[in-house]
Amino acid sequence: MSIDIKTMNVEPKRHTFAHVARRLGSDAPASRYEEGVYDLQATTHFHYRPLWGPEHWHFDEGRTQIKMSDWYKFKDPRQYYYGTYTIARANMHQTTDRNFAFEEKREMLANIDPEWREMIVNYLIPLRHYEWGANMNACSISDAGYGTAITSAAIFTAGDRLGIAQILSRIGISLGNGTGDLLNDAKAQWMDGPAWQGVRKSVEDSLVLKDWFEALVAQFLVMDGLVYPLVYNHFDNQGQKHGAAAISILCEFMVDWSAEHNRWVDAVIKVAAKESDENQALLSKWYGQWRDEAHKALQPLAAMVLGDGADSALADVKEQLDKRAGKLGLSV
Fold it and tell me: How many angstroms from the chain centroid is the CA of residue 9?
């Protein structure tokens, strides 16, 4: 008996979903990112306004003062939808797990000077509470934002910030020989330590912002733009003088994530500023207000860690952030 195997080509009747084809102007094949983002925002058939905020519909462009002709201009340069996002983060967390295993095998945390070990508990581990605040802001942006291009990227970021908080907690547990005692000490620093109260106030002020786009500017552009280079660059460099190379390895996730995350933030701010002069002026005003407040809030923390070098480190991170904002079209 012979078997004759034949192949057949079945031409699809259409190459993508109808709502994507309508946007792209033809039945051209769309990327998975485009299919997972374009025009998924609910826009009609709402029955009643929410009781908790009757001045707006559930999904309402008016929840921010920023005006856009098309909210899907905010394309993510990373092209993240669920599949690509989870694959990317899984790979990064595998690297982090290997770094923790490497540190535990070599017992590298034991090489840290005792004084700096205490400093790590005072400056690094409390950041888990800062990350929780960033998670809340990201959730709020995803909730109140308009257009799936923004809201999907924001909720991915919310997951990232919880993951970073967990890495910081893991470092604290490792430093505490497997106990959570140092996490309690770090929480006491966040709640009552004089060096942290300015940062804590800035985070709490951002949590009650009504305009979700201002929260995006405050958290992702300004506060992150100052905190990350200060902690994971200047503080980290100081730590290496005290035998804390292991901390640099364990914090590599945050350094890599920040560089990638900033690509999305920059793209969003640049598009919004380019849309109109009114947007540009509003974004510049928000940027200036939050930059000055965050810069002032970080001074006690920088002084605690860097001593006489605090002013130059803060001036450096502020200068770098201003250059970045200028390239995005903001008036600095």
Answer: 45
Phi and psi at 287, nearest 5°, equal -60, -50
> How far apart are the C-alpha atoms of 164 and 152, rounded to whole Å?
19
Q: Is the dihedral of CA 54, 59, 60, 64 positive or negative?
A: positive
Q: Please report how the helices 114-123 and 277-306 are oriented relative to each other, as an axis angle in degrees rounded to 10.
A: 150
CA 272 → CA 72, 283, 302, 325, 332, distances in Å? 11, 8, 32, 13, 16
Residue listed under structure tokens 């907690």: 169
DSSP character string of 170-218: HHHHHHTTT-SHHHHHHHHHHHH-GGGHHHHHHHHHHHT-S-HHHHHII
Could you read off the pLDDT of 224-234 as tens digits, one per residue?
A: 999 999 999 99
How many whole angstroms separate alpha carbon 133 and alpha carbon 328?
A: 25
Neighbours of 330 (CB within 10 A): 24
The label of the residue with tokens 């004759």 reads 4
Can you give the pTM of this predicted structure? 0.94
Kindly report, residue by residue over 117-144, the tens digit of the pLDDT. Answer: 999 999 999 999 999 999 999 999 999 9
